[in-house]
Design a protein that fits this description.
Blueprint (H helix, E strand, L loop, with lengths): L4 E9 L5 E9 L5 E7 L4 H19 L19
Antiparallel strand pairs: 1-2, 2-3
Amino acid sequence: MNQTWALDFMRDTLCDGLVFRTLNVLDHGNREGLAIEIGFSLPSRRVLALLEELVALQQHRAAPRQPRPGAAAQGESGHPS
């Protein structure tokens, strides 16, 4: 997971003729959709801001979780030791 991301830019037209764009970000490892950014314009600053946000979120998700203070240690059975 989080080894390779795919970025896919798409465009379509609304019934009134306005063109909109989407940026879809997928994790290649587990095919998880990480983000879809939609707008009439997707300038590079907006794309970079989204990618930076995703990197920070993925790093947070991958960080080892610390036990809560005062939580009882639990053995393999799931019961306190």
